[in-house]
Amino acid sequence: MKIPDRVKVGPFYYAVERPELLINHDHEHLKGESDHQHQVLRIESTLRPRQAEEVFLHELLHAVDTFMDTEMSERQVALIARGLYMALTESGILAPADEERPGNGPPQ
Ligand SMILES: [Zn+2]
């Protein structure tokens, strides 16, 4: 999967930013975040490629959840994003990123 520079959710365009380090207002280290106020999804650029893809899907799901007003919990977003990424990649619908480092890829 190619992580795009922007995504459209309903009528809203979200920019996708890839900061090296992502710290929230509570000084917590995050892998990704969805900023609905500024319509930005942020995904840490230092994540392994497949982890970055899954985090991107997770943050996109938050944006969809906000637009659709489904009020999903953090746990629901986390599990649906993980399950959806798994199903899409294992069914061959979505090609996962090549892992650069040995030992992180699927078993041969
Ligand atoms: Zn989340």
Outline of the structure:
With 108 residues, the protein is of the alpha+beta class. It is built from 2 helices and 4 strands, in the order ββββαα.
Largest sheet: spatial strand order: 1-2-4-3
Topology, number of strands? 4
Mean pLDDT: 91
- SSE-based structural type: alpha+beta
Instruction: Note the run of SSEs as H and E.
Output: EEEEHH
Topology:
Blueprint: E1 6-9, E2 12-17, E3 32-35, E4 40-43, H1 49-68, H2 74-90
Parallel strand pairs: 2-4
Antiparallel strand pairs: 1-2, 3-4
Helix pairs in contact: 1-2
The chain binds zinc ion.
Zinc ion binds next to helix 1 and helix 2.
Explain what this protein looks like in three dimensions.
The protein is an alpha+beta fold and 108 residues long. It has a single domain, classed as Zincin-like (2-Layer Sandwich). 34% of the residues lie in helices and 17% in strands. The protein has two helices and four strands, in the order E-E-E-E-H-H. The chain has a four-stranded mixed sheet, with helices on one face. A hairpin with a 2-residue loop joins strand 1 and strand 2. The radius of gyration is 14 Å and the shape is globular. The protein starts with 5 loop residues before the first strand and ends in an 18-residue tail after the last helix.
